[in-house]
């Protein structure tokens, strides 16, 4: 890990502050607009107190400000480390090539497997909004009954999505690709790196090692060895050597009776 200089720290701080400020302002504007629109539409929001409405607006600004600041920090780090950016772009290109060879069904299943927790979160939010809209159209229910009904619908849909994600996780664990296996592999890799410390003499010295490791990992996932042709040649040479040794041993056995007769 490269230490930051004072100039780099100042540049990083200004980038994060700029991104967080822009995200916070946009979040406040969006939150204020959302609260005003909801107040005109729903009596429940309209009946809220001013501090509660202010809390909703500021929460929206804080949420978007944190996300924007984190995005600005990552963008600054990527601009500093060009080698890491190259590797990430290379991984993305390999990923796109792999997806282009997959069918639509396989791509959909792969997307649901990779983004299962995001799907759960989005489904939960969408189910809450949709259930409130659906139940709110019933004029025979009171406000408390509508809340209870909407919560039941949202919980049922979220539970169904969680069961589907659990099925995906079980399927990945059977293949050795689950979250637990990935965490174990990550800890083992960190231990190996810690046991074999190495310092680059200049930035990007070990870039080729990372590229080779990434390529090996991709090919291992496809069940293709990196040096398949070399391994085949080695196996052929070993077979030839074994055959030659067997022939020599047979010749020696054939020569032994002749020497005994002499």
Give an account of the 3D structure.
With 262 residues, this protein is an all-alpha fold. It has two domains: 1-99, no CATH class; 102-195. The protein is 84% helix and 0% strand. It is built from ten helices and no strands. The chain has helices spanning 6-41, 43-46, 50-80, 82-100, 104-114, 116-136, 143-174, 179-195, 207-221, 228-261. The protein starts with 5 loop residues before the first helix and ends with a helix. It holds the Pfam family HIG_1_N.
Number of strands: 0
Oligomer: single chain
Domain count, please report it: 2
Distance between the termini: 78 Å
The DSSP helix count reads 10
Task: Name its key features.
262 residues, mainly alpha, Mitochondrial hypoxia responsive domain protein, 10 helices
Break the fold down into its secondary structure elements and pairings.
Elements: H1 6-41, H2 43-46, H3 50-80, H4 82-100, H5 104-114, H6 116-136, H7 143-174, H8 179-195, H9 207-221, H10 228-261
Helix pairs in contact: 1-3, 4-9, 6-7
Short account of what is shown:
The chain is an all-alpha fold and 262 residues long. Helices cover 84% and strands 0% of the residues.
